[in-house]
Amino acid sequence: MAMLEIEGLTVEFGSVAEPLVAVDNVDLTMDAGEIVGCVGESGSGKSVTALALMGLVDFPGRVRARHMSFDGRELLGLSDAARRAVVGKDIAMIFQDPLASLNPCFTVAYQLTETMRVHGTDLERRSARRRRDRALELLQQVEIPDAAARLDAFPHQLSGGMAQRVMIAMAIACNPRLLIADEPTTALDVTVQAQVLDLLIRLQQERGMALLLITHDLAVVAETVQRVIVMYAGQQVETGPVPDIFDAPEHPYTQALLAALPEHNLEHSRLKAIPGIVPGLFDRPAGCLLSPRCEYALERCHREQPSLEGRQARRVRCHFPLDASGRPTGGWVAERRVETPASAV
Amino acid sequence: MTSVPPLLEARALARHYTVSRGPFRPKGVVRALDGVSFSVREGETLAIVGESGCGKSTLARQVTMIERPTSGELRLGGEDVAHADRAALKRLRPQVQMVFQNPYASLNPRKQVVTLLDEPLAINTDLSAAARRDAARAMMARVGLRPEHERRYPHMFSGGQRQRIAVARALMLQPRLLVADEPVSALDVSIQAQVLNLLMDLQQEMGIAYLFISHNLQVVRHIAENVAVLYLGKIVESGPKALLFRRPAHPYTRALLASTPSLRGKNRRGTAPADSARTSAGPEQGENGARRTGIVLRGEPPSPLNPPSGCTFHGRCPYAVERCLVEAPLLEPFDGALVACHRVAEINA
What we know:
By secondary structure, chain A is an alpha/beta fold. Chain A has helices at 46-54, 80-86, 98-101, 108-119, 122-126, 128-141, 147-150, 160-172, 190-207, 218-224, 242-247, 252-259, 299-303, 332-339, and strands at residues 4-13, 20-30, 35-39, 62-64, 67-70, 73-74, 91-94, 178-182, 210-215, 227-232, 235-241, 309-310, 315-316.
């Protein structure tokens, strides 16, 4: 059995009669020690998925799922106290902006040891000295230079990269089995980003923890993860192992997203942009959510929402998934001919 | 050499800020920009690349004449900007316009699009209200905004559309130089491509020069003709884009290229590199060539308040020797580019 199993996770905001669906029927399974990437543009629901998993979606938001378990333990309907025993200990999270996530009023050591006071081993809960020793050890593990001096520093005395390392140290303080990193390097410079990604991978490998990396950067995903989930407007549109999904994307959105990167347009003066914008919570189109922006969209796409189909490892939400050469299949040519006889050759 | 002066020319341009470091302590000097020389020709794009705190935005503030440089020369179309008086500045400023990073912050939320576009003309020209309105409408069409948008407020637009408004506003006065300070870094990938395409189309139509400030090398590689790499207020390498990406000479440029994530990059998990021989992928040498010679930097950029002695990069440079600690290298020609490094010849041998 997989370590983390989520089936049909839905997060809604707004009224019950007219819900605004931020996350729509997302499935996610992760094995111990696996690195999974979750990639999507802003508003695609990738962060809300992680927050729902952590139980951090507050009142007006409603979280539903057919099944959401961690280590065989059902997370939905768990009492707050029982959930707190899991969250922060077995599942830890790193947020995007480290300087906004750290409390400016407390020192690094205080914030690091706070987790241990709640979730730590017996010894850690009893002995402040033990906690402080462990905090120092953690800072050394995340490669903070002059770690002993940094223990009593306040967050404003740290650079962005250093603050993110402190956040990582906090997250791994209780040896989590699953680490969720929500855009961990977006606020950092490239050279620092490379260091932090290498650090995350090293810690993941040393500790055998699972890592869920949420990002908007396809290149970061290509370099770090084993399996990726592509999200669009709250839905999973494609999942698959990493080299495959970049070599032969099956969903037109993944294909278009890759094609829009400057890296893929070296010989061309123009980038292959995707027309239009990501639909917001209020203006979701009928049918396939991508249909207004999709270059292959046919009448059926505007009318009927496709479901997530395919084998366990490789799934795609499209009526006409693309083949290895990037052309739509599933009778697309025939259907198109029916719709636009004039242009049919 | 042609006798036509470049559109923009900076020589040893410097801008220092004095900052208070607390009561009873002497004031500190931040050398945000410390002797930078470059030039931009008409209709050309120069990209300024660097990490946060390297002086990119300070440079933009000098070029747009928002601030006066501390020392050095800055010439726009041959005319001295650094020492220009008020009247001259008033005449020169419309020629250089700016697009800011965050279109959510740079547009006045209480003004309609048409008012935003009208304002530069109302201040700087004698055009009648009707003529200004026509110009605003024409510009909206040019940047891909629909006529019905003109009465809307900025909050009614998405990020990409707002950046289009910002670009339109900057172009109202038909500037010769557009300074774009991270114009796409706040936008999503699919929208980023739209805005970059727009910028390139406008350059072709109107022949504007761009000073394109960015930390994203992939974007720079796409849009720029020449690139200057800035580190702690100094240019460490500058040259034509193709050369810089094919054969980065300065250790810092190499490190920047090596740290930029790439779809075809090495896998950080240490397994065999993903063989992504995509059909639309570009020539192999570029990225991979840079990656092979690449170095991963340790540490973070030092504070410009207290820069290291000698070459400011020596603390993070794997090639640093004794000499780098004491003597600052000058920007000197090396194989078609300008590089500021004592050991450039050895490293690239």
